[in-house]
Each structure stands twice: as structure tokens, then as C-alpha cells.
Design brief:
123 residues, alpha/beta, Signal recognition particle alu RNA binding heterodimer, srp9/1, 2,3-Dihydroxybiphenyl 1,2-Dioxygenase, domain 1, four-stranded mixed β-sheet, 3 helices, 8 strands
Length: 123
């Protein structure tokens, strides 16, 4: 069966993006290539997000990166307390129950958890 292995995102500052994905979302730094301006960030499911330096990055409309967390309400509260602006606090949204925020490059990040989605997500 096919399995998504990695994605590449152009970013305005690969180091700042690396730090945000690591410190805010909990991704692990798999490896870095400083001369190329790339950080490879891995999640618990072994998906790697390559953050590559580029100029004038603007997140495309309609693109959303959906990240599963242990508890969306707790994670959203943690992020808000750390100064991350939530575009949507945890609630029922068009795609189910979760929260939405943007990474430093403007990419829409949706947070959800399995328990809340089943209990509050609708259908």
C-alpha cells in the first residue's frame, strides 16, 4: 500500500521554521543541510517535512496541513500561552472539531485529536 513519505515546503527562514515546527508542534529534527538551507522535520508517524529556504514564500490558498495531536484543547491552550495566535480556537469547524493556526510562513495548520473528533466533530 502506498504511504506518503515526505513533503517539501518552501520557507522564508529555514532556521526559524525548524524551530517553530520543533518547539510548537513537537516535530523532531531528522537532519539539516545548512549549506542548502534545509531542515528535515519528522513526525511520530515517520512523515518528513522538508523546510527549504526560498525567497518570497506565500502560502497557497486552500492548502492546509493537518496535524494530529494527543489533545487538541490542551495543545491549543499551550500554543496560545506561548504566544501563538490561533485563527480558530478549538471548536467544530467545517472539517470537524479542531483548531487552526498559521506557521511563520503563513501555512494553515489544522490541529485535531481522535477523541475530540469522534465526540464533537460532527459528521
Amino acid at each position: 500500500m502506498p504511504r506518503l513519505d515526505h513533503i517539501s515546503l518552501p520557507v522564508n527562514d529555514w532556521r526559524a521554521s525548524r524551530d517553530w515546527w520543533r518547539d510548537k508542534l513537537g516535530f523532531e529534527v531528522e537532519f539539516e543541510m545548512p549549506d542548502a538551507g534545509v531542515a528535515a522535520m519528522r513526525d511520530e508517524a515517520d512523515l518528513t517535512v522538508f523546510l527549504g529556504q526560498a525567497d518570497g514564500v506565500s502560502a497557497p490558498p486552500g492548502l492546509a496541513l493537518t496535524v494530529q495531536v494527543a489533545d487538541v484543547d490542551a495543545k491549543a491552550a499551550e500554543l496560545a500561552a506561548a504566544g501563538v495566535r490561533l485563527e480558530q480556537a478549538p471548536r467544530r469547524l467545517s472539517w470537524g472539531y479542531g483548531a487552526e493556526l498559521r506557521d511563520p510562513n503563513g501555512y494553515l495548520v489544522r490541529l485535531w485529536d481522535e477523541t475530540s473528533m469522534k465526540a464533537k466533530g460532527g459528521g
